[in-house]
């Protein structure tokens, strides 16, 4: 059987985590920093857990990867319990990874009868020594760099406030929660947000970034400029910026390396479409 645990008991799975891994997505959910749900093999003494992060819209498997009390039931649980909840959130696929690569053969066996897609994710950390010599990019005329603060989020002159608000609410419980906990930057052009770099979630001193540019304003270096501001704020506050992207996202990988990030780790990401009835 698989059980959902209450938020006040989320910290019961801390003992399942591998100390050699950052686990920031999982820890952000456990600590209530970012919303999510946790499912285990036992309420009283969990050995294996599946963590669902609302913002990432993905799932993480942690703990004992060879636990039949969990492994034998999780596939049906996903079909019967997770799928209906996910579909209400407009998710049509189950995206997941194991805490370590030890999980990979187990997950491939459990979900071997699915239309399983397999890809790689890259994780980068800033090389602060190289950043000290980095020359920041200049903003073109007509564009304005702004910190995402209460004043900006209440500025009725901005034509597409929902562009940034909807992204904040994807990751955080509210805009106030976001503003209380972290920071971000955006670029305005003619009272329109055309690019942003926000902190999606975080744990301890680690601050991951979420970056997006409106399609018609791409290839102007806007992501580079908002990310530079984000990095500067991290350094000033003794925080560690964290970059993650798909192996296939060449533009993101190129920008990370331009901004003096070093690739730290690669892990395997899986997904499959939910089964139709």
Automatic annotation (TrEMBL):
Pfam families, per the entry: GNAT_acetyltran (PF12746)
InterPro entries documented for this protein: Acyl_CoA_acyltransferase, GNAT_acetyltra_YdfB-like
Protein name per the record: GNAT acetyltransferase
Species annotation: Orenia metallireducens
Classification lineage: Bacteria, Bacillati, Bacillota, Clostridia, Halanaerobiales
